[in-house]
Sequence to fold (294 residues):
Amino acid sequence: MFQAFATIVDDGDEVLLPAPYWTTYPEVVRLAGGVPVEVFAGADQDYLVTVEQLEAARTPRTKVLLFVSPSNPTGSVYSPEQTTAIGEWALQHGIWVISDEIYQALTYDGARSVSIVEAVPELAEQCILVNGVAKTYAMTGWRLGWMVGPADVIAAASNLQSHLSSNVANISQRAAIAALTGPQDAVATMREAFDRRRRVAVAELNRIPGMVTPTPTGAFYVYPDVTGLLNREWKGSTPTTSLELADLVLEHAEVAAVPGEAFGPSGYLRFSYALGDADLLEGIQRLQALFGTR
Fold:
């Protein structure tokens, strides 16, 4: 992602950044000299921005749209129709799209994460796709990903990479080839486990009054709106932000959550369900006990 932004973003270029977003995105935009422009969609929209919102944020300096589906931190997935509409809007206005597809294979409830270039093939000459083996194949430690885009952009990114890290280690490349070309049974098994945990997480978190958890259809996160828990006294403290609430949860329930401030506006918590079933349920039951539902 860093190389993609560094390759096509110049000083002062604006990058439309749908929020909530992964915490790294605005920083790599700034490192490239760009200006991140947040476009926020809340739980009432399943955290999915609309073409109308993007158009309202567009200016003559808009250079790039960051498109992420499925999303980290929300797990939201754009439908094929939404993806097509956004792709056609970007094509119409000559806006580059950088599409982070790292969670593409982890979708549920019949949802399919359609690549924006699949939805709008004409966008290929102004789009960079970014993916890797970290999530689908649980290979985070191998540090291997790839970019797909116009030949001149990829050549420029390769020149940049040669001064950053030279290349990916050969053993990581061989491992990735094995993952991509070998049997995919393990991916299906992992997706089934994530789906089961996702359903438990949403159902149990929604038993907590004041916590609103939309059902994600991708990735392995839930992103509840916790504004209903703020400005109330819990264990002698009255948190006014999700950062303060996350600290309270860690101290009194020993459950780790990432506050909304890391991904955009306050008022939200991100929980991962990429852990064992028993540990997941225990963690949520600790939250239920803390907030008086057990």
